[in-house]
Write a structure and sequence with these properties.
Residues 8-58 form the RNA polymerase sigma factor 70 region 4 type domain. It comes from Candidatus Ordinivivax streblomastigis. One of its GO terms (molecular function) is DNA binding. This is RNA polymerase sigma factor 70 region 4 type 2 domain-containing protein. Helix 1 (2-14) crosses helix 4 and helix 2 packs across helix 4. The protein has four helices and no strands. The two termini are 13 Å apart. The protein has a single domain (2-71), classed as Winged helix-like DNA-binding domain superfamily/Winged helix DNA-binding domain (Arc Repressor Mutant, subunit A, Orthogonal Bundle). It has 72 residues and is an all-alpha fold. The protein has helices at residues 2-14, 18-29, 34-41, 45-71.
């Protein structure tokens, strides 16, 4: 089950624009605070948060079917 979830997550992440994928991976998988990413990249915090928001929306939509399958 864990392997299936990771495979689906990787597939869904690959569908994202690079900017959205990068901020999601850095904050959620690498556990780097948005403020630190902003300082390193020079990209405003609000821009990074917006990118992450759109990434999360896509991932929720894309993985909703998998979630339903797991519950059944």
């Amino acid at each position: 089950l864990r392997s299936l979830v990771w495979t689906e997550l990787e597939s869904a992440l690959s569908e994202l624009p690079p900017e959205q994928r990068e901020i999601f991976e850095l904050t959620e998988l690498d556990d780097i605070p948005v403020k630190d990413i902003s300082k390193t990249t020079g990209i405003p915090v609000n821009t990074l948060l917006s990118r992450k928001h759109y990434a999360v929306l896509h991932l929720r939509k894309r993985l909703a079917g998998l979630y339903q399958d797991i519950l059944q």
